[in-house]
UniProtKB/TrEMBL annotation:
It holds the Pfam family DUF192. InterPro entries: DUF192, Saro_0823-like_sf. This is DUF192 domain-containing protein.
Length: 138
């Protein structure tokens, strides 16, 4: 019998703040920074709390792309530079879709949150992300 583990039991969990024109929005994120962790991501998960997400750390800036082949919930993908500035946002990636979703240029981080959540909080390119792994130097 498989047990459903809380986000904290799966890996490194931490606080992330999104600074938008509508205010500051806090998320509890699971951080993945290994090739295996990044490859699995949120695949096979059936739900994600409204204030939860996953932060992918690629350790250096580079072009990246994601797909939703084995992902069962719609997600927003927030592509973030090493400096914490949002480069682009892909809203409502479709579950089980094999189409590649690329960053618009090099990024170091990708934040996945519930589909449509970025629009709810007014998150757009140019906004800033605050997290212990992100430099935030201007």
């Amino acid at each position: 019998m498989l047990a459903s583990l809380p986000l904290a039991a799966c890996s490194d969990e931490s606080r992330l703040v999104v600074h938008t024109a509508t205010g500051d929005h806090t998320f509890t994120v699971e951080v993945v920074d290994t090739p295996e962790g990044r490859a699995k991501g949120l695949m096979y998960r059936q739900e994600l709390a409204e204030d939860a997400g996953m932060l992918f750390d690629f350790k250096q800036e580079r072009p990246v792309s994601f797909w939703m082949q084995n992902t069962f919930i719609p997600l927003d993908m927030v592509f973030i530079g090493a400096d914490g500035v949002v480069r682009n946002v892909h809203v409502n990636a479709r579950p089980r879709d094999p189409t590649s979703i690329p960053s618009d240029g090099p990024v170091q981080f990708v934040l996945e949150i519930n589909g449509g959540r970025s629009k709810e909080i007014g998150l757009v390119a140019g906004d800033r992300i605050e997290h212990e792994r992100i430099s935030n130097e201007k």
